[in-house]
TrEMBL record:
Residues 49-282 form the ABC transmembrane type-2 domain. One of its GO terms (cellular component) is ATP-binding cassette (ABC) transporter complex. Its main location: membrane. It comes from Cryobacterium psychrotolerans. Keywords: Antibiotic resistance, Cell inner membrane, Cell membrane, Membrane, Transmembrane, Transmembrane helix, Transport. PANTHER family: INNER MEMBRANE TRANSPORT PERMEASE, TRANSPORT PERMEASE PROTEIN. Belongs to the ABC-2 integral membrane protein family. One of its GO terms (biological process) is response to antibiotic. It is found in: Cell inner membrane; Cell membrane. This is Transport permease protein. The chain crosses the membrane at residues 59-76, 82-103, 124-153, 159-187, 261-279. InterPro entries: ABC2_TM, ABC2_TM_bact-type, ABC_2_transport. One of its GO terms (molecular function) is ABC-type transporter activity. It is a multi-pass membrane protein.
Length: 290
């Protein structure tokens, strides 16, 4: 029998509820796969079109923008293959908006699991981002078909630009999702702020217009900040990857696209690190606030 003075051997035990954050998520890939599979399989459950909605919704959005911006406002006359230009920008913003929005709601939507068992809480926003990426792939398939119809034959450099653009968006949505997902547990106003950010993402990046229009109205220093916006870099990388080679060279890629893209990548890596710190700070209150 142990007495009050006898030491207790805690070898082999770990303090419950503590972990290594994002690193633990990828150490428990089986749980991550389960959450992703659940998110994908329940997305369109009991719907007639099912995965067809992954095509219908973005295409509907595309045709509205194409009619308003391309035909009514005449932007299709100033940009060669405006259909490819517009679609390649829209799917980037759609990926960010869906991943960011879903990650913000992920903790609250999984409150039953959060309150009952311990697992790395970061797993929920990361799984939400991966699910958004899965839904992004059918949109890429449509873009590939449309681009191929106008003569797109990708080079290794263009494929690298596409992959870098997707990586920037995924990391950006993950970092912001960690921050807003954690804050949203205690302050549900976060979801309203996310809607504002999503609107700014659509209009604050060169999706519905070309970047050179911004250069005409902004001073040089503000234009530089605009081009360093990670979403701007990602959109322009997709334009370079899918659209630029199909044109006659009228509108050139941004002059400092490589520099701005690398800066954007550093920014999203910093945001992801900050997101992890904020998430860990709020995490201790999740169970009681839910």
């Amino acid at each position: 029998m142990l007495t009050k003075t006898d030491p207790v051997d805690l070898t082999g035990f770990s303090v419950p509820g503590r972990g290594n954050g994002i690193l633990d998520v990828f150490r428990r890939r089986y749980l991550l796969r389960l959450l992703v599979r659940k998110g994908v399989s329940t997305r369109y459950r009991n719907s007639a079109l099912g995965w067809g909605w992954s095509y219908v919704k973005p295409l509907t959005q595309y045709f509205i923008y194409f009619f308003v911006m391309g035909i009514v406002l005449g932007r299709n006359n100033g940009i060669d293959n405006f259909a490819v230009y517009l679609l390649s920008g829209i799917i980037v913003v759609n990926l960010f908006n869906e991943a960011f929005s879903n990650a913000t709601k992920s903790i609250v939507d999984n409150k039953a699991l959060v309150k009952k068992i311990y697992l790395p809480r970061e797993m929920f926003p990361i799984a939400a981002v991966i699910v958004a990426f899965v839904h992004f792939l059918p949109q890429v398939a449509v873009l590939v078909v449309v681009s191929s119809l106008v003569g797109w034959v990708p080079s290794l450099l263009e494929l690298g630009a596409i992959l870098l653009g997707a990586l920037i968006v995924i990391l950006f949505a993950t970092g912001l999702g960690l921050i807003f997902g954690a804050v949203n547990v205690s302050y549900r106003d976060a979801q309203n702020l996310v809607e504002i950010i999503k609107m700014l993402a659509t209009w604050g990046s060169p999706v519905l217009y070309s970047y050179d229009l911004i250069a005409r109205v902004l001073p040089d220093w503000l234009q530089t900040l605009y081009m360093m916006n990670p979403l701007t870099s990602a959109v322009e990388l997709f334009h370079y990857g899918f659209w630029f080679s199909t044109t006659d060279g009228g509108l050139q890629p941004p002059p400092n696209l490589v520099r701005d893209s690398l800066i954007g990548l550093l920014i999203v890596l910093a945001i992801t690190a900050i997101g992890q710190l904020v998430f860990r700070r709020f995490e201790r209150r999740f169970a009681q606030d839910l």
